[in-house]
Specification:
The chain has about 220 residues and is mainly alpha-helical. It has one domain. About 55% of the residues lie in helices and about 5% in strands. The chain has nine helices and three strands. The protein has a three-stranded mixed sheet with strand order 1-3-2, with helices on both faces. It is globular and about 45 Å long.
Amino acid sequence: MKSTFLMKALLCGFLVYGVAGCDVKKASQSINFFTVQDEIALGKEVEKQIQSDPKQFPILPEKGNEEVYSYVRGLAKKILNTGKVAYKDEFAWEVKIIDDKKTLNAFCTPGGHIYVYTGLIKFLDSEDQLIGVMGHEIAHAAMRHSTRNLTKVYGIQVLYQIITGKRSRLVGANRHQRGGLKFSRDHETEADENSVTYLCGTTYNAAGAAGFFKRCRDNLRPRLF
């Protein structure tokens, strides 16, 4: 599904709710009209949109920053090597760094494209906290939370496209529908639980992500996008 609005709405959801957003909904009761291949294709489209907007997403150049890229990608690899991440072999699990020192955020798109802001890296106290947050974001992708939310918002239209094979433009979109793309409390809890499960398979503190949120509460009220 390659609707321009859909890409923008999905990105809006990541930016606003990357590591802190929530809403009331039962994750266990949600269904998903998107196939895994749909998920992968959607992730590639979102990645293209991010790359086409360097003003909003200033990707840190790899040349000259090999050390930090190796470090962050090494953390992601440790999570994936636990063997506990769903779609480990299907999704891309590529890591890129966004050079924005004022933003404390990380997010993972459908299909496993991971983005970490330099502001988050500099803010955190320990490696445990960083890998914990990354585990949380990886879990959102592995549990396919974005497309489960999209199914909830656009369910009938998505089902119609699956049945007919048509790629019609999504209609009736508005601000309220965009709000529906944020992760629910149950999705956040599910991501937290999976982050702990992932980290239990490593040498890191399994409650690393919790350390990040505690630091936020104790030190400042960050502007999370």
